[in-house]
Known about the structure:
Layout: H1 5-11, E1 20-23, E2 27-31, E3 39-40, E4 44-48, H2 60-80, E5 83-89, E6 99-106, E7 127-128, H3 130-148
Antiparallel strand pairs: 1-2, 2-4, 3-7, 4-6, 5-6
Helix pairs in contact: 2-3
Amino acid sequence: MESCFICDKHAGSLQVSGDCIYEDDSIYISHIDKKGQPTYLGHIMLDLKRHVPQIGDMTEDEAAAFGIAMKRTAKALQETLLAEHVYTLVSGNAVPHVHMHIIPRYAGTPEEYWGPMDVYGWPDAPFGGHAEIKEITEKLQCFMKENYHANV
């Protein structure tokens, strides 16, 4: 198998700024990494840990874990970051490893910036670096622990 960014991230063989929010045998949830560049705060990546190129290739157990993790992550964004809407996006074009983008839309986002990647174009969007990402991931970790008894 050729090198896979997501597999390398899980193996710890590359440094990313997106801190882990939750991890178990099947799932890894973290804030997106933009290679040290400011990023839209709350943009979460939900990865399947096993290298699986497409959603249809997941086992039933992996699919169940993925779906539950998606729901819990969206709820965490709604409750901790007060997201008024949560987008989910899977394309698989850039990295052939099952993963999902989970992106909050914050109150006050103008309608022309509604859309999972359109929020990045909003001039007043909340962007931040490692310190802000760390603060958000700590809030999300606490929510997961308190509501789902998740160990991080």
